[in-house]
Amino acid sequence: MATAAPDDIDIGAIWRSLKRAMPKLVLLSLLTGALTYAVLSQFPPRYTSEAQIQVVAPRDANGADRSAESVASRLDREAINTHLRSLLSPDLALQIIAEEKLDKNPEFNDAIGTPGLLQRIKNAVGLGGTDSESEQDRVLKAFNSRLDVYSPRESRVIGIRFTSSDPALAAEVANRIAEAYRTSLATRSLSETDEVQQALQPKIDKLMNEVSDSEAAVEKFRAKADIFKGGPNNTGLNQQQLGDLNTELTRAQAARSEADARAQSVREMVRAGNAESLPDVQRSPLIQNLVQQRVRVERQLSELSATLLPAHPRMRQLRADLQGLERQIKSEVGKIVEGIEKGASIAASREASVRRSLEQVKKETAGTGEDEVQLRQLEAVARSKRAELERLQARYESNRIAADRRAVPVEAQIVSVARPTSVPSFPKPLPYAILVSLATLLFGIAIVVTKALFTAARGSTAEHEVFEPAVAELATGELAPVLARDASRVHVVKSVADLAYQLAAHPQDIGGFRALMTGSSEQMDIGTEGIDLAKAMSDAGSDVIVLDWAPEGHGLAEALGIVPRPGLNELLQGKATFEAVVTRIPASGAHFIAAGAPVHDRDIVFDPDRLNLTLDALDTAYDQILVVGRTDVARALFEAIQGRFDAGIIVSEARRRPATVQGGGTFLGFDVTDIELFRLERSKTTEIARERLARVGAKGRLEARVS
């Protein structure tokens, strides 16, 4: 089961309020729509045509693209706004007025024609202008009121809209504005071009003389300082020589380092006795031949040593040959080592020679350093003057071509021409009437919903102040609500119909009318009277709800054949919503909230805030709220909410005076004012019906227990 609070929004109550108000709202919306349609139909139709121009970054006259900075400055938002303001200029408007003779048109000059309905309305409310306006001002004002120039965001397109009662005139004026503005831009550009040409010619002549003088000064100083240039890069001779010597020195240093490394390696191998392992030695054919011979001699010597003695002549000859070969190999290796040493010495000498040459060239270059600096300054001046001259000459030539053709690139290009239309832009009676009708309907629905949500139970704040009970202490020590208005007389009614008539006669535009019904004694069952009263008020056209007030759980639901739970007790405890507890009384349009399950914690259901919130919510949804309960629980409820009821009803026997109404102005033991008191005397017929209803309820409960 969903948890609910006493202040939950009652969707059903809002829907019922809308149902009651919907016929009036629909009628009102239809009337406002019809009135809007009738009023707009009296206005003459107006037609709107639109021409579009695009702001572009024009090329130069010779077809070259402009710089990025120039393009950005011509296409930024400020530039677009400048075009917009120019299109709205009075000079352009007066030009179009003169060309189209709009001052002779009654639409623009109301002094020569009968004013229309809209103009008559403006004149009536003081917005039609003054008689002191000149004809030009009057026509210009009418022209500007029909002209609309705009540019969409993130776009370089400018729209020109013009409105007139003549569709052909609207299109013609829009096109003429676009063409006239484009022509004015072209004329202005031609004038600027002629002015620029006249300003450029003297500058070009002066610069030509200055460039000639600067270049002649450069050549004269170069010849005087003996500073010449050559080579593919047109650099000075000293710089070229320095570059070549630097390259040569690098190569000499590399060669010397390599030769020194070889010589050092050779010396170490010779000292280690591994001279024959040198790469140069192994590459020598002579040494390799000698080595092979030595190998043969050593082999022969080894073979003969097995059969001959060392003193044998053959053995001595072989040993002599071996020694000779060793000496030859050593001599050849020494020559190779000596050659490597000489190569390292030659590399070092070459490096030193190149270094001396480089130092000499540096000294010579340093002597001409000041001349080089001065020469570069002269060359820079000559180059800057030459570049400026070429720039001015190119600009002069492009302007000359444009002037010869009498055509210059224009920033505004027409991309769409205006065409006459047969569909009026104003008025549009049907769409406007539909919109007004819908707006009226929605506004009325909003008012009804807001009133249903926020209207207080007693109406305005003043009403709450009037009905706020003032409690006085009785002799018994109890508190009694004392209200502002004197209503001490008790109305005695003989029938439920009379009571329903009197209750329904109260105004229902300030919220629901609350009534508390109880019996004259604790044992009296008043369920029949409560249900009959609710049915009677419902038949009279009131929205009625009956609250079965029985915290102990024994109420009217079983007698009516209604499921007793969930009910009011669950609603006050936040265990149920209004949708779950509200039901309909059989054979009636009145609603009913059963008592619900017994409550163990009576402080919850007797909490004043919960009770007031619940009753306030019902006030916004129902015309009549009838609370029915036994005397003891009714008195506790009355005390808990400080008597915030509009009426108190006591059901009594015709022959017995009720103890709950003790003279005028006393109800349930409390002195009350501003609460109407009724005493419903039960007739014999009513007693019989009540007993029959009780028997039916008891029989139903018995059958339920048996089943």
Which features does this protein show?
707 residues; alpha/beta; Bacterial polysaccharide co-polymerase-like; Rossmann fold; eight-stranded mixed beta sheet; four-stranded antiparallel beta sheet; elongated; disordered C terminus; membrane; transmembrane helix
In the sheet with the most strands, the strands line up as 9-18-15-10-14-11-13-12
Spatial gap, N to C terminus: 26 Å
Radius of gyration: 60 Å
Q: Report the sheet with the most strands, covering strand number, pairing sense and barrel closure.
A: 8 strands, mixed
How many domain units? 3
By DSSP (H or I, 4+ residues per run), the number of helices equals 23
Q: CATH superfamily of the largest domain, please?
A: P-loop containing nucleotide triphosphate hydrolases
The CATH class of the largest domain: Alpha Beta
* Morphology call: elongated
Strand content: 5-15%
How is the CATH topology of the largest domain named?
Rossmann fold
- Helix/strand-derived category reads alpha/beta
- Considering DSSP H and I runs of 4 or more, what fraction of the residues is helical? 55-70%
Beta strand count: 18
Which spans have pLDDT < 50 for at least 5 consecutive residues?
A: 1-7, 61-65, 455-488, 659-663, 696-707
Q: What is the residue-mean pLDDT, rounded to a whole number?
A: 77
Shape-level CATH architecture of the largest domain: 3-Layer(aba) Sandwich
Keywords: Cell membrane, Coiled coil, Membrane, Transmembrane, Transmembrane helix
GO molecular function: protein tyrosine kinase activity
InterPro entries: Bact_polysacc_biosynth/exp (IPR050445), LPS_length_determ_N (IPR003856), P-loop_NTPase (IPR027417)
Membrane topology: Multi-pass membrane protein
